[in-house]
Amino acid sequence: MKIGIIGGTGLYDAGLFQDAEEQRVLTKYGEVKLMAGYAEGNQVVFLNRHGAGHKLPPHLINYRANIAALKETRVDMIIATAAVGSLREDIAPGQLVILDQFIDFTSGRKHTFFNGGADAVVHVDMTQPYCQEVRGTLIEAAHSENLPLVEKGTYICTQGPRFETPAEVAMFARLGGDVVGMTNVPEVVLAREAEICYGAVAVVTNSAAGISDTELTHQEVLDTMAANQAKLKRLLAKSTQMAEKKQCSCTDAVSSQRKLQG
């Protein structure tokens, strides 16, 4: 079993590795730096989404290169982490949320590997955008470690890098959003196009604008992530230990659509 872990804000080193070594993978979309090693008997590949020193803002991340690199290294599943703001008063900072849906408010990002021509045209199904098998593993691992969590959550993805306005936050909540962040789209879509099982755990770092009594800062996000890093790493370690290959529709998400197209 080979597992890819994508670390978001505040998780720049999975802290799970034995004998970790750097790998550089050259894809048609650019070069990607990975750390590869072993954890709990499985191969693990760690990708720092924002790059060394958190130098890449959300709208400039090379999402296609990242997912293509993980595909090239033949990972069986991806577990992604994300720092998010809460859109609900009953989801407090420090809580873990296992995402199950998203709403996309980004613009201008490279959302697909399939742009027609030699790349073909493919319309992948996103009824269940996050792999149910990976979600199940994360939830089971959290219960095993006695980690409190929210088992479902709709992620609103904004363009960034600015934080949201109170008016936007109110709208997102009315649309059914639970948390808001800036990076999960197009990452989750590209993983589906790459036919890789993908799940994501969001760490609530703050209440969103208008819900919070104070102005938002990136330092608050970093501080809350640091305070909750230990339990996030426990969840990742247990999930890595429990992960196993299963039959899943993610692995033929593109090939099944091509069959329909004849």
Topology at a glance:
Layout: E1 2-7, E2 18-27, E3 30-39, E4 42-48, H1 63-72, E5 77-86, E6 96-98, E7 101-105, H2 132-144, E8 149-150, E9 154-158, H3 166-174, E10 179-181, H4 184-193, E11 197-207, H5 218-242, H6 253-261
Parallel strand pairs: 1-4, 1-5, 5-11, 6-8, 7-9, 9-10
Antiparallel strand pairs: 2-3, 3-4, 5-10, 6-11
Structural notes for this entry:
With 262 residues, the chain is an alpha/beta fold. It has helices at 63-72, 132-144, 166-174, 184-193, 218-242, 253-261; strands spanning 2-7, 18-27, 30-39, 42-48, 77-86, 96-98, 101-105, 149-150, 154-158, 179-181, 197-207. The chain contains six helices and eleven strands. Strands 1, 2, 3, 4, 5, 6, 7, 8, 9, 10 and 11 form an eleven-stranded mixed beta sheet that branches. Strand 9, helix 3 (166-174) and strand 10 (179-181) form a beta-alpha-beta unit. The longest helix has 25 residues, at 218-242. The chain is globular. The two termini are 33 Å apart. The mean pLDDT is 90.
